[in-house]
Structure prediction request, 956 residues.
Amino acid sequence: MNIEALHREYAAGTTTPAQIVEAIFARIASEGVHPVWISLIPKEQVLQRAAALQNQDPTKLPLYGIPFAVKDNIDVANHPTTAGCPAYAFTPTESATVVAKLEAAGAILIGKTNMDQFATGLVGTRSPYGAPSSVFSKDHISGGSSSGSAVAVASGLVAFSLGTDTAGSGRVPAMFNNLIGLKPSRGVLSTHGVVPACRTLDCVSIFTQTAADAAAVLDVASGPDPKDPYSRTPTPGAGASPWAAASTFKFGVPAPSALQFFGDTHNPALYQAAITALKSLGGEPVEFDLAPLLAAAQLLYKGPWVAERYAVISDFIQAHAAEMDPTVAKIINGAASYTAVDYFDSAYKLQHHLRQTEQAWKAFDLILLPTAPRTFTHAEIAESPIERNSQLGFYTNFVNLLDLSAVAVPAGMRPDGLPFGVTLIGKTLAEAALLPLADSLQRKLNQTLGGSKDLLAGTTPLKPATTPTGTLLMAVVG
Amino acid sequence: MNIEALHREYAAGTTTPAQIVEAIFARIASEGVHPVWISLIPKEQVLQRAAALQNQDPTKLPLYGIPFAVKDNIDVANHPTTAGCPAYAFTPTESATVVAKLEAAGAILIGKTNMDQFATGLVGTRSPYGAPSSVFSKDHISGGSSSGSAVAVASGLVAFSLGTDTAGSGRVPAMFNNLIGLKPSRGVLSTHGVVPACRTLDCVSIFTQTAADAAAVLDVASGPDPKDPYSRTPTPGAGASPWAAASTFKFGVPAPSALQFFGDTHNPALYQAAITALKSLGGEPVEFDLAPLLAAAQLLYKGPWVAERYAVISDFIQAHAAEMDPTVAKIINGAASYTAVDYFDSAYKLQHHLRQTEQAWKAFDLILLPTAPRTFTHAEIAESPIERNSQLGFYTNFVNLLDLSAVAVPAGMRPDGLPFGVTLIGKTLAEAALLPLADSLQRKLNQTLGGSKDLLAGTTPLKPATTPTGTLLMAVVG
Prediction:
C-alpha cells in the first residue's frame, strides 16, 4: 500500500477511503492487534472520519484518504499514550502537532504501534505487548524502537507511519522490513506531544514504501511549531544542497577495515553493491575516517545523554521500576549516576567530534553506510539483549548527536530472503534533497515494496527539484 | 590612551612605540605591579618587540605600536598563566589565538592583568594579587572578573585590553571604569588558549575607551579558529542587522517595575537619561518582559552550569582547594552535587526561555539595559561577598546563555563622581552593528575617556557601514 497507488484508485473510483478502512480492520481482526499495534482507534470512529472526507475536495488534501499509524509515544487526543509501558499510560487531550497536521491533510489514523519501551532499544523486543518480527521472517526481530510502525507499513496495513528516532529507531526497523526510513534533522518535525527519549536529540521519523511517499509526508508534517522549544525555523539558504541538482556528486565511505558486520557474511557484498549502484548514479566514493563518528556514538551509548531518558520519567521510575521492562529499567536507572560535570566533559568531546566531522564533510556531499551491520533472531537478542542491541546501532547512533539528516533505503535481498539496507546521510536540513537520490538508489537495488510483491517499478520516480531546496542565488554586498 | 590618538602621534613622529613602552613601564614602576597586574612581560622583551616594529610598514599593521594587556586566564607563550590562582599556574608554550592575532597586527603586549580567581566573580576582589579599585574611587570595587584589564585601560596604561565574559565579566568592570566593554557573540573570538570558566558560554571580551577602538580590535581578533571547537564560522547573512543602516530603530526596555537598582538612588535617573538619548538617536522604546531573561540568568547562577567551572579544574580543586580563594572554592565545589539529570532539566528550561525571548525580539532591534544595577565599596563586598556579587550580574547574566551580543557603554557621571553605564544588547552576531550606535550613544552621555580628562569629542565618530555587516541582497529561487 502506498500513497500514489491509493490516490490512483481513489481517482479511478475503484475504492473509497471507507472500503480501505474496512479492509484494514478486517485484516487486523484476523491477524490480531498485538504485537504490531498497542491500540487501535475505534473502528466506528475511523469510519466516521473516512465518511467525513467524502465531503472534502481530494485535490486540496495531499494525503486524502491515506491510512497511517503512529508509534505509541506520539499523542493522539483522547486516546491513551503508553510509550510501551502500561503503568505509564495517560490520555492526552491534544494530539501531537505532527498528527494534527497529517489529519488536516486528509490522512486517516488507524492506530498506535508497538515499540521498545520508552523508545529505549533498537530491537523491538522490549515491550509487554509482544515482540514484532520482520515481515520477512518470524524468527527475526523487526528492529526498533519503532517496531510496530515499520511492520504496519511493510505488511501493507497502512501506507505510512510515524516513528521516532534518537539513535536509529527510525532507520534500523526500516532496513529489517525493506522500507524507506526518513530521519529528518532535529526540529524539522515538531516533537510537541511526543514522549521524549532524549529530548535534545529526538526526531519524529517517517516510514514509507517509497521515497516519493516519504517526501509527501515530510512536506505535510514538517514546519516550525511554537509549542516545541526545539522546533527549528530554517533560515533562508539553510540546507542548501547544490549536489542534488548536479549530475555528479561525492559520497563518503569508510575504509574497508573500519566496516563492522559483527559476523554477518552477506551484508558486506550487498554494501559493496550499493556503493557500485551509487557510483552508477553519478557518485564518486571518497574514503573517510569513521572514527570521529564512532567516538560521538560512544558518548551517546555510554555517556550522560541517557540522563535525558531519566529526566523525562524520573518521578515514574522511582515508583514503578518493577512495572518496567527489566532491560529498559536497568539502562535508564544507570543514568542517575552521571553528574553534571560528566555531562559537560562529554559535551566538550562531542563538540570536538562535531568539528572533526565538519572538516570531513568538505570532501563529500553525503555519506553512504549500511543501515545496520546485521540482524538477529529473537533468540539471539534474548541471549545478549544489551550488547547485540548496541551492535545494531553501529551505523546510526551518531547521526542525531551530530544533527545530520538520514534516509534508510532498501538495498536488496540477501540469499536467505532477509532484506539489506543502506542509509544516505546528509548534512543538517538536507533531508528533502536526499529523497530523490534515495529513490534512484532504491530503484537500482530493489524490486519489491515493503513485504509485498508490489513492484517499485510500478511507481513514479521522485525527481530532484530543478533548483534544490534551500538554494539561494545571492549577492553578498556587505 | 587610545588607538586613534597613538596612531596620530606615531604618524606625526611625536613619539615612538619604544617611548610609549618606556613611559608605561615607568608608570608601573612608580605605581606598583599589583593589584592591576599579575605579571608583566619583561621590559627588555617588550622594548625588543617595539624595536622590531620599526622595520615594518605601519600602514599594513592596523594595531601598529598599540600597547595592550590581557587578563591572566589568556595564554601568552613562555609566560605563566595563573587564572588568579598561584597554585594553578602553568607556563604555556603557545599564545592564545587572540593574542597571536593582535600581535601579528602590530599590537604590543605589556602584561597580564588581575582577575577574580578562575573568572568566578563580578567584583574583582577574589584574588590573592589584591583587589583593584575603580579608577574613580579607591573605596569602590573595580568590578570583575576582568578587573585589571578594565583598570589598565581606564588608567591609560594601555590602549585596549582583553578580558573574558561568561556572565558579565567584560561589562560590569567597563561600567565601573567608564569604558566600552564589548562582549561579542559566543565563538566570534577564539577561546583557544583561554582557561575556561564555563566553556560553552565563555567569550573573550574587549575593553577600550572608544567604540571605534573596540571595532578595530574586534576586526583583528575575530574569526574562525580550527583550534577552538566552539569557534564560529558565520554563514552568509548571519548577524544581518538592517536597523543599523536605517534612520530609526526599536529598542527594548523593561517595565519600570521590573528594574532593580538594589538601593541605589542615582542610577535610575541616569538610565532614564540613556533611554532619552537613544530616542534622540532615532530609537523608539518598546516595553518588554524581562522575566524570561531573568529566569535564564537564574539557571546560570543557581543551576548546573557551575559544573563547567568544576569540570575544568576538577583535578586541581581536589588537591588544592585550600590554596584557592575561599569564596571561589565554595562556589565551584558546590558544582559537584549537580547531576546530569539536573543539567538536562535546566537545558530544557533554557531552551524554553530562549524561544520566549526570540518571540520578544520580533518587537525590537536591540535592548537597552543598565550595565549593572549599582556598585559597591570593598567593605560592602566583604560584608556580603556572594549576594552582592549576584546583584551586580542582574542585567548581564543571561546574555551569554542566550547567545546574544553586547556592548557596555559609558553613560554619564553620577553626582558622587562614579560612572554609570548602559549596555546595548543585540542578537547573535550583531556585535559589529552595535558599535557605531554605542559610539553615538556614548557621545550623547559622556565627555571624558576612561579615567582620563581626554575628551571623547577629540576622537573621530564611528560611522555605521552603509550596508550593515552581514546583510545580503538575496533572491530566493528554490
